[in-house]
Recover the amino acids of this structure.
């Protein structure tokens, strides 16, 4: 029986691009898996169970497409299941793998997946289908106008401007330029963002994440296995999930159940993760954060929800001050984040992977000096289902 | 078993057929979750976490967990979904309680029938280059498996016919006053209409709890999880020998090892199997080490697996009676939980102390699971 702690012993990320014509869907899964297995230094025989990370089937165009990935992850005749929590799927899959090990039933578990968002045709057409067919789908809603409504409310409540949003893109692109895995690595200016075409006001093209194709995988293990095999690891010390209402209309109007400007359930999820990890003052204890923010405005309420600032909305001023840049007080999304790479099935897994690499001291050119404790998050559904983690060296 | 904390099933709601036409899917899911909580004697405030399982294609939504989070009480609560299979929701819930980090889990799955063509929805799950054009749906895959099994085991045909008759007879006991008569299913050679049943709308929910919660609340009628195992076969049918079920054999090894079961053939008082077709049940007999192929003819003829037999299998009538396609696996687990809790209703086995649930799903049962539940926490 394994001991209490669960460690990360292997990380693999594929190349993320708009198209990956060179790799079929299972081959893309395999790319991340092989890199994670090489990183862990293990044979496939060591893998006792697999958690497959895949969000909407429709992005791949195959129902239950995880079935096609069984051989890619070496899952034949092994315990295997799939997680889908929308955009949070990647972190939820890592969490599910964590529970596999934490339960004491397994010592080594692989979690892996891939997405071909760049080749799906139009992700917003697929994502419109997440809403209720009778009421909200026909508006028509997509994830961009959904979060544009959040941006408008955040502007009204906290004074965020379009230039503030652009600052997030500028920061994250500058950081992505240091990350060879990132999809969008071109450095841009505030003027570039402001001049880009409006997609859904106030969100402009350069405030948006790309549609990426790529895969990722991680290997988790029990502390006993890590110790007995003299492996290097970083540790998952906090795990949480929380959800908001499905209905967009219930998050706006006069008496919202959870204000759409904020990320209520993300905050609740972070509270759980912090409590589990024994973190009482995140603004002082967290060294690095990879927060799921597919549109520039959403990074602000993610920073608020993670309690990296004293009160909601303070993130705007602190970001202007450079506190969340590489070299700042708490670098946020030093990898470039979701804003620069978004292969939805594994985007939130990449958040965990990047934080793990940071506290491991293996993040390369975008390494945060001295990072020993980091946090990651994932957002799924219509900004509805959130997962969070604390990773420590 | 191998879990740090041993979960017990404390509540079940099994609704393999829902005739109400005036309830939306959200309301059906809400009703089912509430029935399971009521059966457990607890409220939603007692639930630490939720795992749901559904199929986007059947639901007609891209991320079907989203819609369900409200009806199952997921708002401001930890919720995850396992769209691979309904039984996987139970497994993840058990792992979460087993980790000691949750005291309770609500597990919910559903399977609607509003989709214009279930066959077409399933066909989308086939590989787009090779299999989808065949065209392949789940029943076609089951038929290929049946054909392979008949070829490998000549006794399979007669045994399959006997199983179909047995399970339908069990269904008549379990559903003495059915609101609907089970409709024969479509056929694909060599599967005849009486070897399947038509898809129906259904749902199922279970409540899992940790021993300290069960003791604190003074809960009785607990089905303790003694062992569970799950495994998958590859997706390409051409890569598989369809006349055997190696993933189920692997799952059974896990479950039996955890439960300390050395002789499965004599260990259980009752079993439920995912009889998508009777050939699926035959394959399960072998893979679960309950009956080797050479004994299929004799054991199915002498009533060994019938009511009053050595090991009654599918007293609920199984999938051959009601077929809510996506959640049939989780229903098998809930049926066994209710048997060992003494709450199975008209098809209750007297003093069922230990039961075995088999859940299989996907093309030709790609996903397989075995779950051992018992009245006593330990042997």
């Amino acid at each position: 029986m394994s001991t209490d702690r669960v460690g990360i012993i292997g990380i693999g990320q594929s190349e993320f691009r708009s198209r990956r014509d060179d790799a079929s869907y299972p081959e893309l899964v395999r790319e991340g898996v092989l890199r994670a297995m090489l990183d862990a230094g293990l044979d496939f025989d060591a893998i006792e169970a697999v958690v497959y990370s895949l969000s909407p089937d429709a992005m791949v165009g195959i129902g239950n497409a995880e079935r096609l990935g069984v051989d890619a992850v070496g899952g034949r005749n092994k315990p295997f299941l799939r997680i889908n929590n929308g955009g949070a799927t990647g972190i939820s899959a890592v969490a599910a793998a964590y529970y596999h090990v934490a339960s004491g039933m397994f010592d080594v578990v692989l979690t892996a997946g891939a997405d071909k968002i760049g080749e799906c045709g139009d992700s917003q057409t697929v994502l419109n289908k997440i809403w209720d067919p009778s009421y909200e789908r026909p508006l028509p809603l997509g994830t961009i106008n959904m979060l544009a409504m959040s941006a408008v409310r955040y502007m009204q409540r906290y004074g965020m401007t379009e230039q503030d949003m652009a600052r997030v893109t500028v920061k994250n692109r500058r950081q992505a330029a240091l990350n060879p895995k990132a999809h969008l690595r071109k450095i841009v200016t505030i003027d570039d963002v402001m001049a880009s075409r409006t997609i859904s006001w106030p969100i402009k093209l350069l405030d948006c994440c790309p549609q990426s194709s790529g895969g990722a995988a991680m290997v988790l293990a029990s502390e006993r296995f890590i110790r007995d095999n003299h492996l290097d690891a970083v540790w998952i010390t906090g795990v949480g999930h929380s959800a908001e209402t499905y209905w967009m209309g219930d998050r706006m109007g006069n008496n919202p159940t959870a204000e759409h400007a904020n990320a209520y359930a993300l905050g609740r999820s972070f509270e759980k993760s912090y409590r589990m990890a024994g973190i009482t003052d995140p603004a002082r204890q967290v060294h690095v954060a990879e927060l799921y923010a597919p549109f520039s405005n959403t990074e602000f309420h993610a920073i608020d929800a993670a309690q990296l600032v004293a009160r909601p909305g303070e993130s705007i001023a602190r970001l202007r001050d450079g506190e969340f840049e590489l070299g700042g007080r708490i670098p946020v999304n030093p990898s470039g984040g979701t804003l620069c790479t978004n292969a939805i099935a594994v985007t939130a897994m990449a958040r965990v992977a990047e934080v793990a690499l940071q506290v491991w001291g293996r993040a390369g050119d975008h390494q945060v000096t001295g990072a020993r404790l980091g946090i990651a998050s994932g957002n799924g559904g219509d900004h509805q289902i959130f997962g969070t983690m604390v990773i420590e060296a | 078993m191998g879990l740090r904390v041993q979960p017990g099933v404390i509540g079940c709601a099994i609704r393999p057929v829902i005739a109400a036409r005036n309830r939306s899917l959200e309301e059906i899911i809400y009703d089912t979750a509430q029935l399971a909580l009521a059966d457990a004697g607890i409220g939603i405030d007692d639930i630490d976490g939720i795992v749901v399982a559904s199929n986007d294609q059947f639901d007609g939504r891209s991320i079907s967990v989203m819609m369900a989070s409200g009806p199952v009480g997921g708002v401001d609560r930890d919720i995850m979904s396992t769209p691979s299979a309904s039984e996987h929701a139970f497994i993840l819930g058990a792992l979460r309680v087993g980790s000691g980090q949750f005291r309770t889990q609500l597990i919910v799955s559903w399977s609607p029938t509003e989709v214009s063509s279930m066959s077409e929805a399933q066909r989308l799950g086939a590989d787009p280059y090779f299999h989808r054009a065949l065209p392949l749906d789940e029943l076609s895959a089951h038929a290929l498996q049946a054909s392979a099994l008949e070829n490998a085991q000549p006794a399979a045909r007669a045994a399959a016919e006997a199983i179909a008759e047995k399970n339908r007879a069990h269904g008549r006991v379990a559903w003495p006053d059915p609101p609907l008569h089970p409709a024969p299913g479509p056929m694909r050679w060599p599967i005849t209409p009486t070897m399947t049943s038509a898809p129906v709308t259904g749902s199922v929910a279970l409540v899992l709890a940790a021993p300290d919660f069960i003791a604190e609340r003074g809960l009785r009628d607990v089905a303790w999880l003694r062992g569970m195992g799950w495994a998958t076969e590859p997706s390409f049918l051409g890569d598989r020998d369809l006349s055997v079920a190696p993933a189920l054999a692997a799952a059974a090894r896990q479950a039996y090892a955890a439960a300390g079961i050395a002789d499965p053939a004599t260990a259980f008082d009752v079993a439920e199997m995912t009889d998508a077709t009777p050939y699926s049940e035959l394959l399960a007999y072998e893979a679960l080490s309950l009956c080797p192929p050479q004994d299929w003819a004799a054991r199915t003829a002498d009533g060994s697996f019938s009511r009053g037999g050595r090991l009654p299998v599918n007293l609920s009538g199984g999938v051959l009676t009601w077929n809510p396609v996506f959640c049939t696996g989780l229903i098998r687990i809930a049926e066994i939980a209710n048997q060992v809790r003494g709450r199975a209703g008209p098809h209750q086995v007297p003093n069922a102390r230990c039961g075995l649930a088999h859940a299989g799903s996907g093309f030709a049962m790609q996903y397989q699971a075995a779950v051992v539940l018992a009245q006593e926490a330990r042997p």
